[in-house]
């Protein structure tokens, strides 16, 4: 890759390695292992210093092409690809944390991420304090002598809270703590956390990187000391590796990433503005709106608002159960938008986070994160926006 290549050029060209056949599209190496010429070469390849291919749990040429392309897009030195977004987060934690360590995390995280910290990592003596992602001062106050990691998702799923990455980095650096940013909602097409100081960027590649709802995958990008020395040994030994087939699909996904993010963000902005004016909607949570509480930070940190909108319905003033009924009516009223937990697809999707993606998060934590019964999440795809408005309007009006 040329260092002066623009983002769009990197998205379609970076990382490509051709075999002797001169294929134009990247080759798909569906092989579990690689053949050695003799015992001496086998012994050589098994050395940690070797860059040759051995076994696809460790590395694979198609996976390597995806890793190199994503690293080029995020502006990172190195990348490891994993079997899912959750395994990217788990690999990061296993690589960086020891028993007795402490994490400061945003209180607005994807439900499974909260579960990972609260149940699995807690069993190994790793504790987590959750704080407001929008207030850097509380991150400093929550940091202890044993804090090793700051973990944030920005914008958050599904409440669209935005954390100031540069401000968190300066607090993390002052305390000798690493900062990991889940960049799932923006992707490098809209936001580059490493350039703002983050140490690691984490992806659920399942979402916008694939972009067409086909495969599960994940990745972590950062400096080579962290990726190669801390995380790669976990990948190699524990084995949460990305399948070469999925890596090949993700390479194709990256080629259209900036076009999709640009168009889907534009559609989302239009839909968010329409929802803001809708009589049945109490509040719209979307980073691209002028009414977003951190609109100025969003403009500084992101090049567009992204494609995920949360909106809160007006209740009838009775209790929470009427809000759930109203939210489910919106979901059930959709005939075009798919009722599914995934997001980042070219096809728009809708979900009720409190009873699905965030259903396992304890109620108090969910409420602290602003995920109430009246909140609905729409991930906007590439359909015509007027068709999306008509579809949502059925459920909103109860018709
Ligand atoms: C922000 C965020 N991070 C991580 C994940 C986990 O990714 P995966 O489902 O690929 O394991 C998700 C999944 O929805 C997500 O929305």
Q: What is the radius of gyration?
A: 21 Å
Counting H and I runs of at least 4 residues, what is the number of helices? 15
How do the strands of the widest beta sheet line up side by side?
Answer: 1-7-6-5-4-2-3
**Based on DSSP secondary structure assignment, what is the total number of beta strands?**
12
Q: What hetero molecules are bound to the protein chains?
A: pyridoxal-5'-phosphate
Spatial separation of the terminal alpha carbons: 54 Å
Shape: globular
In brief:
With 399 residues, the chain is an alpha/beta fold. The protein is built from 15 helices and twelve strands.
Question: How would you summarize the topology of this molecule?
Answer:
Layout: H1 7-13, H2 39-45, H3 61-74, E1 78-82, H4 85-96, E2 102-106, H5 111-123, E3 127-131, H6 136-142, E4 147-153, H7 165-174, E5 178-182, H8 187-190, E6 200-204, E7 218-222, H9 224-238, H10 244-255, H11 257-277, E8 281-285, H12 295-301, E9 308-313, H13 320-333, E10 338-339, E11 349-351, H14 363-368, E12 375-379, H15 385-397
Parallel strand pairs: 2-3, 2-4, 4-5, 5-6, 10-11
Antiparallel strand pairs: 1-7, 6-7, 8-9, 9-12, 11-12
Helix pairs in contact: 1-3, 1-10, 3-10, 4-5, 4-9, 6-7, 13-15
The structure holds pyridoxal-5'-phosphate.
Give short descriptive properties of this protein.
399 residues, 41% helix, 7-stranded mixed beta sheet, binds pyridoxal-5'-phosphate, alpha/beta, single chain
Overall description:
The chain is α/β, with parallel strands linked by helices and 399 residues long. The chain is 41% helix and 15% strand. It has 15 helices and twelve strands. The strands form two sheets. A seven-stranded mixed sheet has the order 1-7-6-5-4-2-3, with helices on both faces. A five-stranded mixed sheet has the order 8-9-12-11-10. α1 (7-13) packs antiparallel against α10, α6 packs parallel to α7 (165-174) and α13 crosses α15. The longest helix has 21 residues, at 257-277. The termini are far apart. 50% of the residues are buried. Bound molecules: pyridoxal-5'-phosphate (PLP). Pyridoxal-5'-phosphate binds at residues 84-86, 110, 112, 153, 157, 182, 184, 204, 206, 216, 218. The site of pyridoxal-5'-phosphate (PLP) has 13 residues, from α4.
């Amino acid at each position: 890759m040329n260092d002066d290549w623009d983002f769009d050029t990197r998205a379609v060209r970076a990382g490509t390695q051709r075999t002797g056949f001169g294929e134009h599209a990247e080759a798909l190496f569906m092989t579990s292992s690689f053949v050695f010429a003799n015992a001496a070469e086998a012994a050589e390849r098994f050395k940690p210093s070797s860059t040759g291919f051995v076994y696809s749990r460790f590395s694979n040429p198609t996976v390597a092409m995806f890793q190199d392309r994503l690293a080029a897009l995020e502006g990172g030195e190195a990348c490891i690809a994993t079997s899912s977004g959750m395994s990217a987060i788990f690999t990061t934690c296993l690589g960086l944390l020891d028993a007795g360590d402490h994490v400061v995390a945003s209180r607005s995280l994807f439900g499974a991420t909260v579960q990972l910290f609260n149940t699995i990592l807690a069993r190994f003596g790793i504790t987590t304090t959750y704080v407001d992602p929008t207030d850097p001062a509380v991150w400093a106050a929550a940091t202890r002598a044993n804090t090793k990691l700051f973990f944030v998702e920005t914008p958050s799923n599904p409440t669209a809270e935005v954390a100031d990455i540069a401000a968190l980095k300066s607090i993390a650096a002052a305390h000798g703590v690493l900062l990991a940013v889940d960049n799932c909602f923006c992707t490098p097409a809209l936001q580059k956390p490493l350039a703002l100081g983050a140490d690691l960027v984490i992806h659920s590649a399942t979402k916008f990187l694939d972009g067409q709802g086909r495969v599960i995958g994940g990745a972590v990008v950062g400096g080579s000391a962290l990726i190669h020395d801390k995380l790669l040994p976990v990948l190699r030994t524990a084995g949460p590796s990305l399948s070469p087939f999925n890596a090949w699909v993700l390479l194709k996904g990256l080629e259209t990433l900036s076009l999709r993010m640009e168009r889907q963000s534009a559609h989302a902005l239009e839909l968010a503005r329409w929802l803001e004016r809708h009589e049945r909607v109490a509040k719209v949570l979307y980073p691209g709106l002028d009414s977003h509480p951190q609109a100025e930070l969003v403009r500084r940190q992101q090049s567009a608002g992204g494609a995920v909108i949360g909106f809160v319905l007006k209740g009838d003033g009775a209790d929470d159960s009427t809000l759930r009924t109203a939210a489910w009516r919106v979901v059930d009223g959709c005939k075009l938008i798919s009722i599914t937990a995934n997001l980042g697809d070219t096809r728009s999707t809708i979900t009720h986070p409190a009873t699905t993606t965030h259903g396992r998060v304890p109620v108090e934590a969910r409420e602290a994160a602003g995920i109430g019964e009246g909140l609905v999440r729409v991930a906007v795809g590439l359909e015509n926006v007027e068709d999306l408005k008509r579809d949502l309007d059925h459920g909103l009006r109860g018709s």
